[in-house]
Design a protein that fits this description.
This is Dihydrodipicolinate synthase family protein. Keywords: Lyase. One of its GO terms (molecular function) is 4-hydroxy-tetrahydrodipicolinate synthase activity. The active site is at 144 (proton donor/acceptor), 169 (schiff-base intermediate with substrate). With 303 residues, the protein is α/β, with parallel strands linked by helices. Helix content is 49%, strand content 11%. It has twelve helices and eight strands. It has an eight-stranded parallel β-barrel with strand order 1-2-3-4-5-6-7-8, surrounded by five helices. α4 (92-105) links the parallel β3 and β4 (109-112). The longest helix has 23 residues, at 236-258. The termini are far apart.
Amino acid sequence: MTTTFETQRTALADVVAIPVTPFAEDGTVDQDAHRALLRRLLDGGITTLTPNGNTGEFYALTPEERRLVTESTIDEVRDRGAAILVGVGHDVPTAVASARHARELGAQMVMVHQPVHPYVSQRGWVDYHRAIAAAVPELGVVPYIRNAQLAGARLAELADDCPNVIGVKYAVPDAAKFAAFARDAGLDRFVWVAGLAEPYAPSYFSAGATGFTSGLVNVAPSVSLNMIEALRSGDYPAAMKVWEQIRRFEELRAANGSADNVTVVKEALASLGLCRRDVRPPSRELPEDERAEVAAIAAGWSI
């Protein structure tokens, strides 16, 4: 019987939360804080989570820590009905091992991080994702696309070989390119997730996206849910009201090539007493003068 992945597709057409990975004073993963933040997301109405995403500092975690984050997430949400999209990546054997680990624990999907190798050919991109997707045919697979050079035809080629490639986290900051890419790959063939979060969600939804990722959701789940509800109903003025509400917060995250993307989220959480502000290099904590601005923004949201 052919797997249709309808449950996974539905889960992607939503707010796809990227939880932070909080650190304890000694620098290790703070498991208690991590679980508390996951419960807060679930209690806030979030039903799709991505452990080991970029907001979770994927590339700063050790292999053992990535496994721990996956295990803690799946264990915490096991009885809550949430969908889990586990981030995997690095070399092919590492990504395959991570995907199989996620499958063994009961995850429904994996997100494959954009390869960071300095030399990525388009055919090589297909080969990389094919090797991972073929290793876990029972799981839905979601490529995370940040490469503006990749052609939509390559994604279609990948899905021809691997029907478990069911969605795309598209994170190229160009709505026109997204619209063309999605149509070249097959607009109705995949679930399109706006991978640059709330700031790009309205423009990407207008071109065919039905879900968006979010780091902001760690701080204010209701804000993210307000945006997707507006977008689902086609109420773009209402969606842009949310956009205006979060604009400064997201500008701070995006400044200087997104240098403080995770830092700003953790600073907001720290201001609310939810976790420490600690991040790992190459990220760095905010200077004192910017901390107050982030705290004021978070305090102004209905949390």
